[in-house]
Amino acid sequence: TALTARINRGEYIVQQNLFVRDQVARTVREIGDGLLESIKKVAKRTQEVAPGDTILVFGRSGSIESLLINVATERFQQSAARAGNGAPSFGGFGAQPCDAPTSPTTLSMEQRLNVIVLDSAPLFEGRGLAKRLQARGIAVKYTLASAAGQVMPQCSKVFLGASVVMQSGDVVSRCGTAMVAACAKSFQKPVFFFAEDHKLTREVWIGSLTRNESVPNYFSELAGQTL
User: How many Å apart are CA 36 and CA 33, to the nearest integer?
Assistant: First the structure.
């Protein structure tokens, strides 16, 4: 009887572990599907890129990369349809780079998509982004963030990724984003931040150095003291 009870208890524990495993796996799949759906929503905003635009990006953002690839794909498909040659062999979001990169010279100057990639240490994620965009037939210029002031006049819009978008409109992003945004403002270039749904938060950033905290008033503590 005691042995039977132990076996039954062991089977119950195994069943519970399998149930927990299935629940965790389903939750992970739901989260992954939600993330992909959020990126697809951003990637569909192709109307943000007008014909003849030169887009400046900083580092790598998955949403911005998908958006730019979708824009290039739509323009190549439209150009191929007008020429009667059929659609190109590469697709938009989620597709793999084509084996033979399509030259951007096949498009007119107005339809051609030009991208300037600013990059910074230590990850240099912009290098991979520039290669992937070139593989999709996008004309890319690569430089470091230290040259932002030199290449900023050449762009028409600045696309930046965001890690967090707060309720007050403040944005948290990679180191150097504030410098790029300030440089764009000095050249009167429009700045667009792209973020998925899960990056929106109700928190509010108060001040540039403290977040929702009160700074002690040291002057009141020194009042009455002889210096």
Answer: 5
Query: What single-letter DSSP state applies at residue 156?
Result: S
Residue-averaged pLDDT of the chain: 75
Q: Between β-strands 139-144 and 157-161, what pairing exists: parallel, antiparallel or unpaired?
A: unpaired
The amino acid that residue 178 corresponds to is: A
- Is the CB of residue 194 less than 8 Å from the CB of residue 42? yes
Task: Write the Ramachandran bin of 21: left for phi over 0, alpha for psi from -120 to 50, otherwise beta.
Answer: alpha
Read off the pLDDT of residues 61-117 as tens digits, 9 standing for 90 and up.
888 898 898 888 888 787 777 766 554 444 444 444 343 344 544 555 556 789 999
Over residues 50-60, the mean pLDDT reads 90
Tell me the pLDDT tens digit for each residue of 143-195: 999 999 999 999 999 999 988 888 878 888 888 899 999 999 999 999 999 88
What lies within 8 Å, CB to CB, of 79 at 6+ separation is 106, 107, 108, 111
d(CA 72, CA 138): 7
At residue 104, the 3 state secondary structure works out as helix
Residue 193: which of 156, 150, 164 has the closest Cα? 164
Q: How far apart are CA 63 and CA 15, in angstroms?
A: 40
What is the structure's pLDDT at 21? 74
CA distance 54 to 116: 7
- List all residues 6 or more positions away from 34 whose beta carbon is below 8 Å from its beta carbon: 197, 198
Distances (CA, A) of 220 to 71, 223, 225: 58, 5, 10
